[in-house]
Every structure is written in C-alpha cells, then in structure tokens.
Amino acid sequence: MTHIDYLVVHCSDTPNGRETHAQDIHRWHLEQGWDGIGYHAVITLKGEVQWGRPRYWQGAHADPFNQASLGICLIGRDDFNCAQMRALEGLLLSLKLDYPKASVVGHRDLNPAKTCPNFDVKTWWLDVERKGLD
After folding, report:
1. Which of 4, 72, 76, 91 gives a 20 to 30 Å CA spacing to 98?
2. Quick one: which of 1, 20, 24, 4 has its CA closest to 103?
3. Is residue 2 predicted with pLDDT exceeding 80?
4. pLDDT score for 132
5. What does the longest C-alpha to C-alpha distance in the chain come to?
6. Nearest 5°: phi and psi at 109?
C-alpha cells in the first residue's frame, strides 16, 4: 500500500478499563473467519503502541476505504486516558510524516452508521495541529 488517503481512528468497543492487546484482537478476528487483526496499530490502556497488520497489507477496518487507509484502534469504548491520547497523537504525527496528505478521521466520519471511536477525531486533530503550530 503506497497511497494512503486516511488515517482512521477506531475503538475496540471493549469495556472501558479492561486491558486488551493487539494479540487479543488478532485472535477475535481470526475467530470471525477473517485474515487476522484488521487494524495496523492498537493503543493499549498504558499507551503502548502495538502493531497489527503491517502497513503494506491492506487493513480490514473501514470498508470500502481499506485500500487507501491505515487503521488505529484505541482500547476501550468511550473513555480513553491521557496515556492513550498522547500515544495516539505521537503515532499520528509520525504517520503524517510518511503520509502528509492523509486525512485523520474517526471511523464514524467514513460511515455515518458508526459512532466509533465515540469522539470527534477531526476536531481533536485540529486542536493537535494548532498546538503544534504554537
């Protein structure tokens, strides 16, 4: 995958505060008959970035946008802690170096039937960018 239009933020929709890892999501997705974890990165409750699918492998997280996107999953449902948000910010800033034209969006921005990740990623990202310009 060389052309990335979107960096898509998701949530695992697991209970808030329940530690879950990329390995767990990989197992769940295999149990669904999929080719393994659909996300490229997972951010744990401790703010650790765990890698899922390699970037060169198309994700399975935001159909029909999978061919031109990377998926990032925050563990939890709607209450993400400071460590997670700092890790998300750092990961996205790093990915934007490689994919400067990619838009940072939430899954819900690509599919109005979704609420994931249960916060307004576009507004949050604008604040991150503004902070970086200060």
Report:
1. 76
2. 4
3. no
4. 74
5. 47
6. -75, -25
The answer to whether the CB of 44 falls within 8 A of the CB of 13 is no
| Residues 7-30, mean pLDDT to the nearest whole number | 96
In a domain, 1, yes or no: no
Phi and psi at 7, nearest 5°, equal: -110, 110
Distance separating alpha carbons of residues 125 and 92, to the nearest angstrom: 9
In a domain, 120, yes or no: yes
Question: pLDDT by residue (tens digit) across 97-121?
Answer: 999 999 999 999 999 999 999 999 9
- State the CATH number of the domain containing residue 30: 3.40.80.10
Between the alpha carbon of residue 36 and those of residues 30, 69, 72, 82, the distances in Å are: 5, 17, 15, 28
Contacts with 42 (C-beta within 8 Å, 6 or more apart), sequence order: 12, 20, 21, 22, 25, 49, 50, 51, 52, 72, 73, 75
Q: Cα–Cα distance between 10 and 105 in angstroms, integer? A: 9
Q: How far is residue 35 from each of residues 31, 52, 53, 58, 59, measured CA to CA in Å?
A: 9, 12, 10, 11, 10
